[in-house]
Amino acid sequence: MAVKIRLQRHGHKDYAFYPIVIADSRAPRDGRFIERIGSYNPNTNPATISLNFERALYWVNVGAQPTETVRNILSREGVMLMKHLQGGVKKGAFDEAEAQRRFEAWKTEKAAKLEAVKNQERESKKAAAKKALDEETKKNEAKAEAVAKKRAELAAAKAAEEAAKAAEAAPAQEEAPATDAPAEA
Hints:
Elements: E1 3-7, E2 10-12, E3 15-24, E4 35-41, E5 48-51, H1 53-61, E6 65-66, H2 68-77, H3 79-91, H4 96-184
Parallel strand pairs: 1-6
Antiparallel strand pairs: 1-3, 2-3, 3-4, 4-5
Helix pairs in contact: 1-3, 3-4
C-alpha cells in the first residue's frame, strides 16, 4: 500500500481550507484517510498551519510520500529538517543532543526572520498610512485655499456691487432733494 501525505479540500467556493491527512494513494482526494495530522488555511494572512509535528515526523520516517505542497509545508515547519538530522544521527555523524541543538538553532533563526518580516510589513503599513495622511492633508489645504480664494472673490464682488448700488443711490438721493425742494416752494 503506497501511503501519501496530502491535502483534502474542505470549505466552499472561494474559501477553501485543507486538512493535512495520511491516505492510501488510491483513495479519492476527499475520501477515506488513515490519520489527520494537521490543517492548512491559506485564507488568512499569513497562512495558518497547524501540524502535529511528532506524527508528521513518524509518517515521513516510515516512508509516507508527501505531495509537493505538503512537502513545502513540512519543510516550513521543520519536519523535513528533523528527518535529515535524524538520518545524520543514525549514520553516526553526530549525536542526538547535537541534532536537537541544530534544530533549535534553526527554529530560533526562523522565528527571528519571521518577526523581522512582520516588523517590516508593519512599518511599511505605517509609512503608507502616513503618506496617505500627508497627501490627504495637502489636498485639504489646497481645497481650503481654493474655497478661501473663492469666498474672497465673492466678498470683493459683493462689496463692489454694494459700492456700485451706494454710488447709484447717492446721486439719486442728491437729485431727490432738488426735485423735492421746488415742490415745497
